[in-house]
Every structure is written in C-alpha cells, then in structure tokens.
Design brief:
With 116 residues, the protein is of the alpha+beta class. It is built from four helices and five strands. The chain has a single domain, classed as HIT-like (HIT family, subunit A, 2-Layer Sandwich), CATH 3.30.428.10. The chain starts with 5 loop residues before the first helix and ends in an 11-residue tail after the last strand. It binds adenosine monophosphate (AMP) and zinc ion (ZN).
Length: 116
C-alpha cells in the first residue's frame, strides 16, 4: 500500500468505486470517465507504479491477466472482443501511478496509438 495513492485508497475503501470483480490478488472497478461502452480498470492489491516495476514480480502480471480472463469469460466481452491497455509514463498519459490495466469493450473500438 502507498499512503497517497488514489487506487490504494480505493482498495482500502477510503474512496468509493463501482466494483465489478475481485479476488485475493486483484480488484476491478468501472473507470470514472469511460472511454468505451465498457471501461473497467484492473489493479493488483500490491502497489507498484507502472508495468515495469510490476514486472519484477511475474506472478502479479499473471494474477491480472487471469482475473481479466475470468471476468471476460463470464461476460459477453470474450465473445465479442475487447482491448487491454496500460499507460506508462508521461508520453502515454499515465495519470495514476498505481499500475492499472484498462479493459475496453462493449462495442467496436477505434484505432489507438495515433499521435495527437
Ligand atoms: P491513466 O491515464 O492510464 O493513468 O488512467 C487513469 C484512469 O483512472 C483514467 O481513465 C481515469 O478516468 C480513472 N480514474 C481516476 N480516478 C478514478 C476514480 N476515483 N474511480 C475510477 N476511475 C478513476
Ligand atoms: Zn497504490
């Protein structure tokens, strides 16, 4: 846990969120500013700032993707398709420095990765 981290506060229920999935390792909730019909954030209960820091513990990466697989398999997302995005650092526009994975779907998605 990191004291001033927004997503750690969500994990501690100090800030409310709309939970969609949780297990012992992973928590998922609706993004407050959805960029797709379905926009969910998956986070690990262990605080890391970005994917590179998280990658030092390979199990935590597996925990996230197993949670996404389990969640999508139980919804219509697995059938219709979805996108997983993680932003790291300034150029990618990371704004919350607790590693998170955006799960986007619920309808056709636009192209991504373009210069703005
Ligand atoms: P990123 O820009 O990749 O760091 O993503 C951070 C995401 O967190 C953005 O899509 C925000 O809309 C979302 N966000 C920020 N605060 C909250 C919150 N309190 N509850 C849910 N989502 C949030
Ligand atoms: Zn955190």
């Amino acid at each position: 846990m990191s004291v001033n981290c927004l997503f750690c506060k969500i994990l501690k229920n100090e800030i409310s969120s709309q939970k969609v999935f949780e297990n012992e390792k992973v928590f998922a909730f609706y993004d407050i500013h959805p960029q797709a019909q379905t926009h969910i954030l998956f986070i690990h209960r262990n605080h890391t700032k970005d994917i590179n820091e998280m990658s030092s513990d390979a199990q935590s990466i597996a925990d996230i993707f197993q949670a996404i697989a389990q969640f999508t398999a139980e919804s219509d997302l697995a059938q219709n398709g979805f996108r997983v995005v993680t932003n790291s650092g300034a150029h990618a526009g990371q704004t919350v420095f607790h590693t998170h994975f955006h799960l986007l779907g619920g309808g056709p998605l636009g192209q991504f990765g373009q210069r703005s």
